[in-house]
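Most newcomers find our protein records easier to grasp once they have seen one. Nothing more is needed to start thinking about how sequence determines fold. Here is such a record, shown just as it appears in the course material:
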Amino acid sequence: MKIWDLFNDVIDKIPEPVMSVLNFLATLFTIAAGIGIPTGVFTIFSNSIDLNNGGGSIPPRVFIVSLAIMIILVLVRYFCFKLQTIKNYREINENYYRLMHDFRNEINQMEVYYKEIELEMREWNMELFTTLTSKFLVQELDNLCEILQVLSGSHKKVCGCIKYLYTNETGPINYNNALVKTFVRSRNTDSNRVVLDEKNAGKPIKVSENTDFRTIVNGDQSYNNDVFYKQNLIKYDKQLSKADPNAHYDNTTEHYDQYYIATIVAPIRVANKRLFYKSENTDYDLLGFLCVDTLDRYLFTESQRESFTYIVKAYASTFYNMMSKYQYYMMKFAEYEKSLKPGNQMPQKTPQNNQTKQSSQGRRKRNNSRRYRKN
């Protein structure tokens, strides 16, 4: 064990660039060994190496040195793998930290902006809230995509986007008539997809026209079964057609298979019973969908389904709070704009200057002192 610990200490002190070179060499050796070991073993026995008297065509020293180098390279390969695993987990943990850190900061910043508006210290500017929310969501989409790519080990990129849900009807949302629109995308998204978003900006896209969204809103609403997870959409389409000739995988994105072939879609929502301002005790307050996708058909595998699902749902849960707060301020801004129309009067607030604040503070202190004397 002491020798093993000593080897660990030595490996830890090797600079990362040197470890990368050693890792490369160890990888080459691993491949070569996989091909050459059977042949080498046969050669050793066929040449009848006698390590005691030096007989045979291969000198004993050469054999021993070669064996030692092989063992060292295998150990280096092992420790490189171990260090890479630690590095991956560090990146993942850092991204989780950034999610919660940025969420805490940005949602409180929105409240600061709104309080300043209420106190007439700042003019109403909805663009301020939109920029702050969009910036947060894009950054966290980037982090989410990075986590999924690191965990999978894939070299193909994972992209993400958020679709927000809206309706032109009044009253409870009818999901069959509800519409979706792209709110933000991760920075690594293909530019052609962004162009398609701009092209379809004025074109309503129904939830019912997309299998991903339709499956979620009409399917099982239990805790773990509310995510659309598909490793290969082309294969999934064939499975649907085989079961029912009239059934197909529906997607409103033109030539979607040029941009992705595998996807995970999670609802951005919370149960109505958890919202004090909702009278319904069933169903959910659904704000939109969190979508991640890739062209790698071996990235979202069945073995990764549970872990990837939990990760995507964790981000979707946090996004709900941010988007819900943003939606609230949009409603407040709409009320403000309505109040500016002729015939509507904004309630006038009396701004407090320093003197007014000091006098009110003085009154509070005097009242408190009287209260204490009574006690």
Observations:
- The radius of gyration is 31 Å.
- Confidence is low (pLDDT under 50) at residues 346-375.
